[in-house]
Amino acid sequence: MATRRGPTKGSRILVQLPFGRDKTGGGKPASRLIYIKQGVADALGFKPIRTLPTQQVRYKTASGTATTTRYQKGSYKRKSVTLIFKAPKNITGSTGLYKSVAMPIPSGVTLDDVIKYFHTGAGKSKGVVALISPQGSRMQWAEATLR
Predict the structure, then answer these.
(1) What is the band of 23 on the pLDDT scale with cuts at 50, 70, 90?
(2) What's the domain of life for this entry (predicted)?
């Protein structure tokens, strides 16, 4: 049976990644939020957020400055990594088996964070054995059986 490249069924949900950071080196806010297919989030063990996070935004007006509350958006259609499974996997909500899925990288997550999480961290049990970086280089730490 042929394997497919990525799931196309199901809706996208907002997920906060369990790795990365909430602030950059300069103290500016960073995000760990991504939009990802619900079946892919289940396969990778990510939980959807229940309440939308907000942030205070200050901007200049004609009479001075004003502050407003804005909902944070997740990373979607930005640079992403392709996660490769040890064996073709059945993704909930889609038909067929999938050997890889794409995961966007938000501003608070680096490629090093992704590798550490799936190679030696809590995501080790999810069956990810390799990834392809946004630049196209492949990093593999275990044997994959992709037939």
Answers:
(1) confident
(2) Bacteria
For 121, the 3-state DSSP assignment is coil
d(CA 24, CA 14): 21
Query: How far, in Å, CA of 60 to CA of 2, rounded?
Result: 56
pTM (2 d.p.): 0.81
The mean-pLDDT minimum among 21-35, 46-60, 118-132 falls in 21-35
Angle at 7 between CA 104 and CA 114, to 5 degrees: 30
Contacts of 142 (CB under 8 A, 6+ apart): 86, 129, 130
% residues pLDDT > 90 (the chain) = 36
DSSP calls for 19-72: SS-SB-TTS-B---EEEEEHHHHHHHTPPBPSS--EEEEEEEETTEEEEEEEE-
113: which DSSP letter? Answer: H
Could you tell me which of 117, 52, 49, 45 has the C-alpha nearest to residue 81? 117
pLDDT classification of 11: cutoffs 50, 70, 90? confident
